Amino acid sequence: MAISKVKVNGKVNDGFRTEIGCSHNFIIDQPKAMGGNDEGANPMEIFLASLPACICAIGRIIANQKRLIVRSIDVDVEGSIDKDFLLGKTEDGRAGFTEIVTNVKIDADMTQEEKEAFVEEIERRCPIADNIVAQSTLKTIVN
């Protein structure tokens, strides 16, 4: 087993504008209606966006490894979430997405069965999908 660490950093000062430090820095914010400046996607969108990005990347890795001609992979993701819970309006439910649905379109000369097997392998090897369906240890250190 070859364990690697991936590190990112987030810093917020006033408001909701959060500067994310990683290989390609970016901003996460809230829409103006929620008190932000709308300078970037919100955390829920960023979380969901990591899934199609990973599916596409792992799909390309598998296609390259197996020498498959895959012209494109197009992934739509939709998450259902109880915003009343995350806003503190209720104690019933949970903060996370209750359901995440992906729709994966593969443009390749494959049968439907081959496309399904390809996507099954992608999901099995995708770290983002794995973190959604399996439980990772979360440790928080407060300084």
UniProtKB/TrEMBL annotation:
Gene3D superfamilies: 3.30.300.20. InterPro entries: KH_dom-like_a/b, OsmC/Ohr_fam, OsmC/Ohr_hydroprdx_reductase, OsmC/Ohrsf. Pfam families: OsmC. It comes from the Bacteria. This is Peroxiredoxin, Ohr subfamily.
